[in-house]
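Quick question about two entries, pasted in order.
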Amino acid sequence: MAGLSFSSRELRDLSLAWVALSVAFAVFFAGGGTAVINTLAAGAVGSLGGLLIVSLVTAGIAFLLHELGHKVVAVRYGQRAAFRADYGMLFLAVVAATAGFLFAAPGAVHHVGRITKRQNGLIALAGPVVNLVLAALFAPLLLVGVAGVSSLALTVGTYGVAVNLLLAAFNLIPFGPLDGATVRAWSTPVWLAAFLPSAALAVGFALFVLF
């Protein structure tokens, strides 16, 4: 796409945020810092490495493409857009994961230029929509895993669907700096059409995993 470019700073911020969030999710998936220490003490380094790789291709990609979705649409509307990581929040995400909590506020795509409320709403909507598409793409892996064909497919599919549905629903909450507030400020019907299915899918999938 014409005008879509990345500065060295932006590439660095994206890479560091991708890795930091992947580590945080991997620690959370493992059961927290105590579980990680016990696993290391037992010499099962390979299992943690495998979990990190799974996190990189599920949670990491979910975050990365979410932010790129914002940027691509912003550039499409003639904006100057770039992702800026929040290093304090990234550190907090890793610390929270060691305590067994999930917290992810890695930064945001900042864009400047003349823009309408509709265009701003569509830019905000792009990130959650990307996550819904990714959840659909991970779903076949989950089905393969549920069928008992591959335990790896089950793990990757479960995390891929879960993380993307969670990110879509959470970011569409109409509060503060979240995408949902911007979308709702533009159009309440569009926000409802995006948020209600996302929230229902996230809750439904959580119940499916738990029961």
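Here is the second entry:
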Amino acid sequence: MATQQQDSDGRTVASKLFAILDAFTVAPTTASLTLTAIAERAGLPLSTAHRLVGEWVSWGGLTRTDDGRYNLGLRLWELGVQAPSAKNLRSAALPYLEDLFEATHEHVHLAIFDGRDALYLEKLTGHGAVPIISRVGARLPLHSTGVGLVLLAFASADFINDYLDAPLTGFLPGTVTSPDVLRRRLAEIRASGIAQMSEEMTPGSSSTAAPVRDRSGAVVGAVSIVIRTSESAARANEAVVRVAARGISRALGFRSTAG
């Protein structure tokens, strides 16, 4: 196949095509990139990036805006939401996410574990909500988001050790990057079933998140709301986020043995 042929640099055409998509997941993530930024992030010559980006645009994987920047295309999203696990989780969660949004009129997130990141499956937001960088389809680091901390807390011990052994990016002064502090934090999340964080990814925002479990009890996602840091509604937020997470878990077949 042509896509398996190697160029002079030893990379296949397929690997270069996928590197272009990966460019949109490199921190700091952004909804749109210039051709130059794509080429730099993908490690490609500008001429090669231009040719392969054109292929993605023709197929619908990327779209070109009027100012010459590129966005991920809807065709990728259409394929992604057909994945059975993501599709089932999103379908089961949406009514509870809508209830959570109606109760708070704040940002509401549903995310799943994806490598070293939290992948955002759904986001509901109000006009007056605090500006944040999350979006549907975005991937953000586990240690610096509310949903990510929940997913990391309930990951395997081996994964947690590997994650904390690697360098951890500090996005803001408040981002926790100490492995020892994070270990204690993850233990507290496992004990309480809730994650609270403030101004660790986006200035002026605070997040409350809780785990979503499947029929077996495994944590398969996380739900959160994000509010302005100045708002003092942590306890109320904790209650409504727990209710939403439990509702989604029940919809997935989870039955708690607790009274």
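Reply: The longest strand covers residues 219-228. The CA atoms of residues 215 and 253 lie 4 Å apart. Hope that helps.
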